Records
---
Amino acid sequence: MELLNHCLFVIITAVVCAAEYEKRESPFRRSFINPYPQFSSHNDGIDPGEPLFLTPLLNNESISRQEVRDMARVKGPQFLGVESYSGYLTVDEAYDSNMFFWYFPAEQDPEHAPVLLWLQGGPGASSLIGLFMENGPLRVIAQNKLQRTKYGWSRTHNLIYIDNPVGTGFSFTCHAEGYARNECDVGRNLHEAVIQLYKLFAWNNSSGFWIAGESYAGKYVPALAYHMHNTQSGLEDHDRIPLKGVAIGNGLSDPLHQLKYGDYLYQLGLIDENGLEKFHCAEAAGRACIRQQDMDCAFEIFDSLILGDLPSGSLFKNLTGYQWYYNYLQAYDEDYVSKLGNFLQSGATRRAIHVGNKPFHDMDKENQVKMFLKEDLMDSVAPWMEELLKYYTVCVYSGQLDIIVAYPLVRNYLKTLKFPGSDRYKTAPRKIWRVDGELAGYVKQAGNLVEILIRNAGHMAPLDQPKWVYEMINHLTHYTR
Ligand SMILES: *[C@@H]1O[C@H](CO)[C@@H](O)[C@H](O)[C@H]1NC(C)=O
Ligand SMILES: *[C@@H]1O[C@H](CO)[C@@H](O)[C@H](O)[C@H]1NC(C)=O
Ligand SMILES: *[C@@H]1O[C@H](CO)[C@@H](O)[C@H](O)[C@H]1NC(C)=O
Ligand SMILES: *[C@@H]1O[C@H](CO)[C@@H](O)[C@H](O)[C@H]1NC(C)=O
């Protein structure tokens, strides 16, 4: 009886909360799971040249692959001798959808190094943010000045960045129908791009293909892996892209089980019991919306809880005074990107990376990519994760200090997954993880799941702890199985 009453209370609360939240205006405005303010356009008077479309060249028998690679080569002293290639791949001819990629061959043993794709989240965040701020071989230190990094993942990986989905970064589509509506669209377009990249760069002797990403890429990474898994199952070995595993950092994958901020914020001392009650109420309402497949309602609650893109802000901002949810040691925004924006928008860069005058979109005010993914935002890829966990290594890592996709939220959904090893996962011992004697974090493993906490890092873990996260990914791709 007591239980029944409790459940009734939860249901009634959920309905009341949902009704209250329905009044809010649509929140599809600006940034979602991305900390970076908008890029300004920048004109340095240098002719940006023409965009380079590689697909017709790849399909032309009278042009050798070597010639196509030469055309895609990124040249210029500003890149400090770091070898790279970039251009457009047509992934959907009907809608003229084209994906921009930027590829950095491995510095060590490129013939055998694993191929690793990095995807940013958003939706609508350019993967070039990951390149220049998190795990690439170069970073921007002044308007038009780059510097080599020490722990770029291209040290030991053939490292690819793709602006995904189309409409993000330099990737574009010429038709409304070309935008991704769901993760099936995302997976299909990405797979097409990866197939063409394998043609172009012939990583025949590489030790395998890995997909990594962060934040909203908690959807994209499984989407690509799952699409590859399904479409490749009938193929001969030599025609297959040798998918080995995935790595997801602070990823939103299963909102139904990840919408649990209240307890976390309470334990951190950022809210009191009154605040906790408000969070619990809204969270129950959000879950009710998801269960009813009312994704608009679910997203509005998510926004009012924590994102606060609407003028009325969020409960989180109201109660804590925080303007920043990527690291709980920091209450305010950091201006990470203005130098990067100027660098990417300059004619010299545009010319070198073969994008011509194509617009660059990163979490714009009118974020088309997010608009078209509206129904997808609060949907789950948990069933795909379960399938992937049967066959591939799945690393789920978390920067410890993140709020927006915090470690306990991730754990909460991982615990609901059913896969070979899921029972062991619930009781598996946690191991202390050290890098050169430094306490880097903790690791738990069961079946194909590797769960890692990265100490002293926020939402963008490779930005905060480049050495540890490099060691993590390198170990994963070189020494797992
Ligand atoms: C293929 O490339 C050759 C040599 O550049 C060119 O002459 C020809 O028009 C191309 N064919 C197609 C179908 O684009
Ligand atoms: C790489 O593998 C593909 C597919 O098996 C094959 O067509 C191609 O000739 C190979 N390339 C090299 C350089 O070995
Ligand atoms: C892969 O290795 C084989 C055997 O060593 C070699 O013949 C081939 O050229 C290599 N392929 C590539 C693309 O390097
Ligand atoms: C936040 O506080 C403001 C000012 O009191 C209020 O108008 C707004 O509705 C609050 N937002 C939420 C989501 O609670």
---
Amino acid sequence: MPPPDPSRPGVLHLDLDAFFAAVEQRDKPSLRGKPVVVGGVGGRGVVATASYEARVFGIGSAMPTGQARRLCPNAAYLAGRFEAYRRVSSQVMGLARELSPLVEPVSLDEAYVDLSGRGDGRVWDVAAVTEVAERFRADVKALTGLTVSVGAGGSKLVAKIASDLRKPDALVVVPPAEQAELLAPLPVQRIPGVGSVSAERLRRHGFTTIGELARAGESELVRLLGRAHGSGLWALSRGIDPRPVVSEREAKSVSAEETFGVDLTDRRDLEHRAARLAERVTSRLRAQGLAGRTVTIKVRRYDFQTANRSRTLQHATSTSREVARHARELLSGIDVSDGIRLLGVGVSGLTGYAQADLLSDADEPEVAELVEEEPEEEAPEPSAGWRPGQDVEHDDHGPGWVQGSGTGRVTVRFEGPHTPPGRIRTFADDDPALRPADPPVYDPRA
Ligand SMILES: [Mg+2]
């Protein structure tokens, strides 16, 4: 895959606006224009997405849901409907692939597109990119009812920053001649790979903005950070990002591995490392909206003999705690006393999200605690009760969604994407006329 042409704004970053919350507002007319929070609704849950109306109250992604409830008690708190989100995501990714075969999905609601992948020889100047991107945005709105923000530039870095500039429902095309000016005032953390540790180190050297890095010059950054980091960071500070847009065929497995500088013999150390690898693998799974049923470890011994061990679970998972536990158990069957030089953890047998996973994973204990012994996981309960936001159907009242439940009652609002705001009714929570249902179908012609 070639790096993008930095002289043309032909790389797009697509980002659906407040995605999970927007799908909820589309399918639940009574929530339109209201604060909606999708996330873990239990005691230790965190916010996955807040609608723009909820963000006004200071609610944002990764905030504990309990804190969000204190900031805005009247918001609708919903558990999330990943089947509905996946359906919309695949429609949008399909439209993106009509733009160019070079589409790299980053998560359910984000993707990069390199227009040069069309191979039709078209020159991607600002006018041409604007025309194609506006048509794409209109197509997404028509097909799904949702708004998507698009940034375009000469690299992934610039495209991503541009898509965020005027959210929601905006297109920002950055001419290559203006990208340095765009980046200059932004904090260094906006550069991919610059986390809080790097940012703190840069701050101690007097760098807080991207423009300050660009002005420092390559040799100064190399002196401070070493050749590899210094040169790369200097290029990125001027918007030069060689990462290609990589179109992935449907991933068959996701794995991560680590080669050690010295052969490791300490089992506890290896278990820690397996837990960290599990965390890397599962965060990539979750970013792609995936979960998997088979956990594999790969172990290369001091003499380069490699062993793979795997086990298949009853259900797909994307939680790091669960993958780490299975990896650890697989590792327990392997003799490490002569030294291990490489350890890998993988997940295969991929499907869409296991519903409960994404939003509960952030509650997990730190990696360091993962090596503690855990009780054997129970099989998932067939009837876990009604979840807020869940799609249901009632024999007499038709389709609706669960507004709340407790003390033996369940409250349902009967409405759908093409109805006016609906009425609420309350039932016994074991009412035989009420059952879970598939997400409602959104009809673009309605
Ligand atoms: Mg988004």
